[in-house]
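Action item from last meeting closed. Structure (284 res):
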């Protein structure tokens, strides 16, 4: 999630020190967990993202008021677990698609009302890229851990730079009806920082004989697109929360809200990377 920027200068609203401390500590724990499991790969990494996907389904269905909630969450959570297992067992894409449709149908039939069924199905569709794309990238022979670190770098740089440049420079609002604190200065700062960090990861990877399958120009362009997608993903989740009249997707992460609040931008980057994977290997 791209953090909300503060008021226009010269006097930005200060963040309470207690809240800032909780936010920083939570961020450090999440970053450490993501990097450690990324280093380990395999089952630990896949299970880490499965847990994130299940949390997304729970938060989405809680926000949208689906009933019977726990039954739907169980069905869809089992569906995500099945997708993770099929990936780890190197099952084919068609089997994974059939299993996904089966669990989607079961989840939809458990809910009464057309609108609630749409919400139930969309929670699974939203969570699935977060569950599958990071492990696929980690295991991909042409991307591997460098491709994964590129994803992290772009999203984290966008988040941090958008927050601080927005608070420092202020200026015109990016999208006031959805997120009144975000500014164009934060948006531009996020894109610039993401591009620089994306190139840095690619350069370091190349120095250690783990080059990404793109030129530096291509990586720069992809970093720009991914940063924009990350910020659009954040706005999309903000619109959902506004529709559901909630401030945060949950209160699971101190100082940050819920898992969706932290992964809305990463989710959008997962979609961009999925398109890249299709160009590298159409069978993925």
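Sequence:
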């Amino acid at each position: 999630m791209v953090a909300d920027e503060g008021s226009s200068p010269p006097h930005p609203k200060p963040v309470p020190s207690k809240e800032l401390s909780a936010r920083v500590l939570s961020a450090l724990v999440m970053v450490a967990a993501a990097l450690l499991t990324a280093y380990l790969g395999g089952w630990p990494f896949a299970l880490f993202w499965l847990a994130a996907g299940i949390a997304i389904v729970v938060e989405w269905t809680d926000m949208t008021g689906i009933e019977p909630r726990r039954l739907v969450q169980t069905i869809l959570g089992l569906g995500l677990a099945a997708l993770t297992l099929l990936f780890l067992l190197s099952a084919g894409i068609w089997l994974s698609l059939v299993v996904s449709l089966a669990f989607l149908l079961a989840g939809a039939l458990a809910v009464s009302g057309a609108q609630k069924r749409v919400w139930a199905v969309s929670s699974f569709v939203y969570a699935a890229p977060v569950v599958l794309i990071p492990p696929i990238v980690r295991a991909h022979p042409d991307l591997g851990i460098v491709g994964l670190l590129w994803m992290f770098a772009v999203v984290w740089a966008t988040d941090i730079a958008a927050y601080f440049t927005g608070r420092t420079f202020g200026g015109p609002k990016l999208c006031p009806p959805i997120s009144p604190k975000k500014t164009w200065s934060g948006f531009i700062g996020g894109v610039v920082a993401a591009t620089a960090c994306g190139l840095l990861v690619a350069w370091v990877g190349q120095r250690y004989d783990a080059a990404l399958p793109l030129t530096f120009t291509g990586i720069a362009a992809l970093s720009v697109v991914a940063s924009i997608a990350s910020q659009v993903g954040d706005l999309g989740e903000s619109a959902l929360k506004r529709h559901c009249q909630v401030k945060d997707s949950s209160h699971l992460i101190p100082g940050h809200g819920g898992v969706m609040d932290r992964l809305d931008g990463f989710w959008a980057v997962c979609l961009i990377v999925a398109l890249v994977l299709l160009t590298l290997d159409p069978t993925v």
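Note appended to the action item: The mean pLDDT is 91.
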